[in-house]
Amino acid sequence: MKQIILWSLLILPWASLFFLKMDTLRRYMPVALFMTIIHTLSYQAAYHYGWWNEADSSLFGWDRVAPIPWVYGVYLVIVIWIFHFIFGKFWMYLTINILLDGLYMYIVYPVWQRAGLVSSESTLPTIVIVAMMIGFALIIYLYQMWQDEVFKQPQSETH
Questions:
Q1: Which residues partner with 122 through β-bridges?
Q2: What is the spatial distance between Cα 39 and Cα 35, in angstroms, rounded to a whole number?
Q3: How confident is the model at residue 154 (pLDDT cuts 50, 70, 90)?
């Protein structure tokens, strides 16, 4: 059952992207991939410093440090959907991220722990992990602002 859930966490989010336009995917895939890099690095730091261990979330055996279903499935796709709906509305973005991160860490994560899908041990207080998640959300928001500016379509001049 655990493997079915982990595979679902990898495949179903990607399947949801069929409901988005290709322009939306092109616009927000870079920020989602950037977040994936941030998550991968944070999982590596957590593994190295003993903050948490997500070996129970491994799908392939070689993904014991940065679990594929979470980092390359759920988290990546959630970034695209959140940016699709609320990018450009910073305070709404921040509020929704605080609510989702808090909901995840204080309600969903404990359920996943009891189900054996995520680590039950952490040396960091939950509030610190939530603060890290919010910090990541702020970093990727700034990245997307920069990305939009860099790739802004030049306005055609009329003579």
A1: 52
A2: 6
A3: low
In a domain, residue 74? The reply is yes
Phi/psi-derived region of residue 39, left when phi > 0, alpha when psi is between -120 and 50, beta in every other case: alpha
Give 54-113 pLDDT, tens digit per residue: 777 777 777 778 888 889 999 999 999 999 999 999 999 999 999 999 999 999 989 988
Whether the full predicted model's pTM is greater than 0.90, yes or no, is no
Q: Give the number of domains in the chain.
A: 1
With a CB cutoff of 8 Å and minimum separation 6, the contacts of 75 are: 35, 36, 39
Q: What is the largest CA-CA distance in the chain?
A: 67
Give the span between the Cα atoms of 134 and 21, in whole angstroms. 27
The verdict on residue 50 lying in a domain is yes
